[in-house]
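It is worth pausing here to work through a concrete case rather than discussing structure prediction in the abstract. The textbook approach is simple: state the sequence, then state the predicted structure, then interpret. We follow exactly that order.
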Amino acid sequence: LIDDPVDDGLLDEDGNKIKTDNPYADINNDHYLDFSISRLEGDAEKTSHQIYGKPNQNKKALIISVYDTLPALDAFYAAPLMKNSMAIDGHLKEFTTTRLVERRSSKYQYSYDDVKSLAIQIKDLIKDGDYKDFFGQIKILFSTMNEAIYLLVEFDWFNAFRDILSGNPFVLKHYPVYNEENLINEVKGKDVLAYMAFGNSTHWFLPNNSIKISSLPLLPSYTFLYYSKSYESLPEIMKKYPISVMASTSSVYMPQSSYSSQMFFENFNGEIAYVARNAKNNLLSFYKTFKNISFYDPQPYLKEFYSRTLYSEPTKIFDPYMQLEQSPNVAVNQSYLQTEIKITPRYAIVSGNAYFYDVDEFAEDIPIYKRTIILPEDAEIIDVIFSSKETYANISAPQIRTNFWYNSRKLLDNRTIVEIFFVPIRSNSILTEATARIIYKADTEITYAKVENTKLFFGVYSSNAGEANATI
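Step two, the predicted structure:
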């Protein structure tokens, strides 16, 4: 048990302590997880199933999502739980995904003319200066803007655009609705379930009623449970024989918990406990990022870092693939080494707003670029120097604390991970290029590596002018 990092005041539903496994995996006490960690849950039979069960090779995922706001607030908050559920769909590229969504839209289908008409209606309402019935006008505007929000998160845009490319008319169709019948039919035969909806220890909540967990069919191999204190439902969940369950030991928060949840599906590329560890470490870095640049309370992200707990045999793999990256070249400068990382954002300016195409993550609406490098064993960072090129763009930009910063931490083998962060907007300007120069000391370093035909070429630096043994 650790102290709850969020002060919920009179609305505290999970007490002043939360359960977490993080300290068992943090060996050097820097808060980042050095080991992957998970818990086996249930009796001997269920534990055996977790260890020996195998998911299907033809990977399928089901994503269930609902609204976490009242209808009157949908336009104001932009439906974060539904929006971040869409991000999960984007992360699971190697899966055949099925979506079940809560329906608030007035229609099941939109044509091109319908979408165009809705956009014109919003534009006319905003431009209209005759506010004789001010509150009536505002009510109509919010109702219309709500419909636009529903259009974005409840409808299948991917297949609509695919139809256009195939020469068919533009038809925007609603995803299947989240109800009891569709839930029972669609959960069968899936490998992954992202349950981005609400529940308690015995029931899952539908938009209009609820369903007993005990009445569900067998659950997918990996089941992610979004809702508050979802670990309390594990006795019922494990009767449905999932192999791995990600649950929370505390309350969830809008919008922080939904954003944190989608991070657990990024790079879904190895043993499930390894993926969970990487997601938690990224979440901790994001918490520090948010603390650096935003004036909003970052503590719910820290609470998510502690409370998300994996119940699983840790070595299960659902979607393995290799990630290959070219390491930056290293220059020798007297007794120091240095390497440079350059970031050149791709962007467009539309109606006084900057839109960035290749952002790594967002904190609220603030775009953030992130680069990671690993320094050799026993490296010592001397300095990290940032520089940038700037162009005046007359854009409206949110207020931020700083444009550049970095985090560093040690791995168990004493190598150093350095994470560079860059926000490409400043007041009314865009930073068109950023450079981070990392200056460090190390006993031995590979200064470059390249492949020509089938031969490998290495440049090696040694501070002691001695031998450096390597195994390739």
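Step three, interpretation. Residues 2-101+175-312 form a domain with the Rossmann fold fold (CATH 3.40.50). The chain has three domains: 2-101+175-312, 109-173, 332-439.
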